[in-house]
Write a structure and sequence with these properties.
Blueprint: H1 5-14, E1 18-20, E2 32-34, H2 36-55, E3 71-74, H3 83-89, H4 91-94, E4 96-101, E5 108-110, E6 115-121, E7 124-130, H5 134-149, E8 160-167, E9 177-178, E10 192-195, E11 199-201, E12 211-213, H6 219-224, H7 226-233, E13 239-248, E14 263-273, H8 278-295, E15 303-307, E16 319-325, E17 336-345, H9 347-354, E18 357-360, E19 363-366, E20 385-387, E21 392-394, E22 397-404, H10 405-416, E23 417-422, E24 425-430, E25 441-445, H11 452-464, E26 469-471, H12 477-487, E27 491-495, H13 497-502, E28 504-509, E29 515-519, H14 523-531
Parallel strand pairs: 3-13, 7-9, 25-26, 25-27
Antiparallel strand pairs: 1-2, 4-5, 4-10, 6-7, 6-8, 11-12, 13-14, 14-22, 15-16, 16-17, 17-22, 18-19, 20-21, 23-24, 27-28, 28-29
Helix pairs in contact: 2-10
The structure holds adenosine-5'-triphosphate (ATP).
Residues 217, 249, 251, 260-261, 264, 266, 337-340, 402-404, 406-407 line the site of adenosine-5'-triphosphate.
Length: 533
């Protein structure tokens, strides 16, 4: 089913999942606030990740597909770290995108995100740029080419197109480019580098001396604490450290709802292992992480695991795969990244000790400046791992599954959104996995009298201690069910006349619409059972 994004965005606003940040002041591009239901949904996703990957992970037996049993621990690091962290990690020099500005529209674009196609008409040949993909992009470029030439729709036959939509990066000179929001040619500036890290100043020092950055990823906090974790928690290789937290990137063109934001949350694991076993562990994590999304309800037909081509790999990586989802706002056939799983070798730990590494003549070595000194000095601290069985000190290899909590939340919302005809009415339903649903169960007294509210309140209070439960006694029962369907509540419990005589309640299932009677005291165990699935 294709999801109508406008309807989903409006539901998110109307029912309190997501609001534009600082909305009363007109919003701030690239920033979002989670409302009362959104915060529960995103927290459930992060909790599911934390539980499945870290706290409930079984240290004693190897999980299916894993070469060995392994340990997992957690960490929560500061957002602002020593500026040298970002110099040695490579973010200071390399974490940039190329942007182009439009002198006419004053808009800014990410160079690699603009596409377009060449057209010839009235003795002119030019490139019509657009930010829209697929069929819509073709239509849009057609309309704008006509407008630029002063032609009417019926003169469309005069346009002779040369090839499909291609990236602006394939165009050498911008003299013949009609920018995505421009009416004349040649208004785009040449691409310029733009570092994505947000800069800030620590303490009373102004100027470069006090300059620091908001972290663009949570991973580096894990690397710089590697030795602390090993020394304090007696973990042995192979083991992983996980962290969930905010990251910040000054994205040039935030868009597609929360998909590309400037402030977002990541759920990252750095998994440390012996170098000889890293290829096996890389494959394990790639498959394990893919399965996690399907287990929680993303359809495998809309999810893909894409291994990066050799030329896409970072300078340190021996293998990277992305888990991608066919978000409904993307053109058909296109996918957006949910998570990257990278084999990072020993790049990070070595850089934080020896100084920033770079690939020189095919080998990773410390990058030197003109005077032959390390370009960015490492900490000098020996943060290698000591294996007391083989009596060897070495840099472990690292596998990094790095997921976005906001992109995950958005993917689960898109997957869950359905509109269907039920008894001649359109029912909007979020088919969220019960573990993710913001409200687990709604307790509904059929009428507000005859002892029904009292019995319903007793069930509500009993469940509320452990679960997010909603009590609703307002309006016709059908309307109350619809309100719960729309926010993804998997179960409703209705207390009716029969409840008062035989102690049973109606248990309604959101997806099958099946209603069964169960004893009121079995309601809590029933919920517990279903949430464990
Ligand atoms: P993209 O290519 O889409 O910019 P990336 O490859 O730079 O993503 P990573 O650095 O691998 O992303 O970050 C890991 C995860 O963090 C991504 O898979 C994504 O889920 C999330 N993420 C990264 N950038 C953003 C963003 N601007 N907004 C929301 N989530 C993001």
């Amino acid at each position: 089913m294709s999801v109508n994004m406008d309807k989903l965005v409006s539901l998110c606003k109307r029912r309190g999942f997501l609001f534009p940040s600082s909305e009363i002041y007109g919003g701030l591009n690239g920033f979002w606030d989670y409302g009362p239901l959104g915060v529960e949904l995103k927290r459930n996703l992060k909790d599911a990740w934390w539980k499945d990957m870290i706290s409930a992970h079984d240290d004693l037996d190897a999980p299916p597909g894993a070469p060995l049993a392994y340990q997992m621990v957690g960490l929560d690091c500061s957002i602002v770290m020593h500026p040298q962290v970002w110099k040695c990690s490579g973010h200071y020099d390399l974490f940039h995108d190329f942007m182009v500005d439009c002198r006419e529209s004053k808009k800014r674009y990410r160079h690699d995100q603009v596409r377009g196609r060449w057209v010839e008409a009235r003795g002119k040949r030019f490139f019509v740029a657009t930010q829209v993909g697929g069929e819509e992009g073709l239509k849009e470029t057609e309309t704008r080419a006509l407008k630029h030439l002063g032609l009417r729709a019926k003169q469309v036959e005069e346009l002779v197109w040369d090839g499909a939509l291609v990236s602006l990066t394939t165009v050498a000179s911008f003299e013949e480019v009609l920018g995505p929001d421009a009416t004349s040619l040649g208004t785009l500036t040449p691409p310029r580098e733009f570092n994505l890290m947000f800069k800030t100043f620590v303490g009373a020092l102004s100027g470069e001396e006090g300059a620091a950055f908001l972290r663009p990823e949570t991973a580096q906090g894990i690397f710089v604490n590697f030795k602390n974790v090993v020394d304090s928690s007696r973990v042995k290789l192979p083991f992983g450290i996980g962290q969930v937290g905010k990251s910040f990137r000054n994205e040039i063109t935030p868009r597609n709802f929360t998909f590309r934001s400037r402030e977002f949350e990541q759920m990252e694991i750095e998994f440390f292992c012996h170098p000889s076993q890293s290829p096996e562990w890389y494959r394990y994590w790639r498959d394990r992480r893919y399965r996690w999304y399907t287990d929680l309800g993303l359809a495998s037909s809309r999810l893909r695991l894409r291994d990066h081509d050799h030329d896409e790999l970072s300078h340190y990586s021996c293998g990277t795969a992305d888990i991608e989802y066919a978000f409904p706002f993307l053109p058909p056939g296109e996918f957006g990244e949910l998570e990257g799983i990278a084999h990072r070798g020993d790049f990070d730990l070595r850089s934080h000790r020896e100084g920033k590494l770079a690939r020189i003549n095919g080998e990773l070595s410390v990058e030197l400046d003109a005077e032959g000194k390390p370009r960015h000095k490492g900490s000098g601290k020996d943060i290698r791992y000591f294996d007391d069985q083989i009596k060897e000190r070495f840099y472990p290899h690292v596998i990094e599954p790095s997921a976005g909590a906001d992109r995950g939340t958005l993917a689960f919302l898109c997957e869950a959104f359905h509109e269907e005809e039920v008894e001649g009415e359109t029912r909007t339903v979020l088919r969220l996995h019960p573990r993710l649903a913001p409200v687990k169960v709604a307790i509904l007294p059929l009428v507000n009298k005859d002892g029904m509210p009292e019995m319903a309140a007793r069930i509500y209070k009993e469940m509320k201690r452990d679960y997010s439960v909603y009590y609703d006694d307002g309006g016709a029962i059908g309307r109350r069910y619809r309100r719960q369907d729309e926010i993804g509540t998997p179960y409703c419990i209705t207390v009716d006349g029969q409840s008062l005589t035989d102690g049973t309640v109606t248990w309604r299932d959101r997806d099958t619409l099946e209603q069964i009677r169960i004893r009121a005291e079995d309601a809590l165990p029933e919920l517990q059972k279903r949430l464990r699935i």
